[in-house]
Amino acid sequence: MQIYPAIDIKNGQCVRLKQGRFDDMTVYGNDPLGIARKFVAAGATYLHVVDLDGARMGSGYNQEAIKKIVDTFNIPVQTGGGIRTMRDIEERIAIGVSRVILGTTAVSNPEIVKEAVKIYGDKIAVGIDAVNGRVAIQGWEKVSEVSAMELCKQMKDFGVKTIIYTDITKDGMMVGPNIEATKEIIDATGINIITSGGISAMMDIEKANQIGSHGVIIGKALYKGALDLSDVINRFEKK
To answer: Is 8 a catalytic residue?
Structure first.
């Protein structure tokens, strides 16, 4: 199972939100590159980097910081946040990002996802962030009427191979992910589902592993020291 340590960037700083709320944010430093360096030193084989300003405003505000991470380390990076157009996708691919995550676009303009998958294949992933089974968009500040399950099925039909599923009510709360909803999506789609939101203990990762998650994204638990990245990687990636 792939372990994805998370780096969320806002105003050039590494931050974590609670339940996606920008008014409940903790800053963990002014050096995203330095955080990435610590993760890589601990054995990270893939990084998950999100441009929170982009997610909220719809443009790549922190692209230079992301590029520095991509250029510095010889491991793949997946990134999302504010990627709304084919040009946005092309720009991320051009700076060397291994996987581009589309979120709001999957709801507001799904044809872009279909086109992107035709051109870039496995380099395109979709982030589906849900509140009570409905998909949240625009940096999680709006909840659509779109069902998370139906969107997952539509994305599979478009040829998407990887979906990052986040229950926003769990995110940043250190209470464990929504295993039941994630399992339903894994069982219904049969594609690579990455579990995200609320991972706080080894048991959470074990549960995600047991339901067939392709990987897990870990954020606050690493920053607060509740989980040791090297221990997690040794246990779940190196089996």
So the answer is: yes
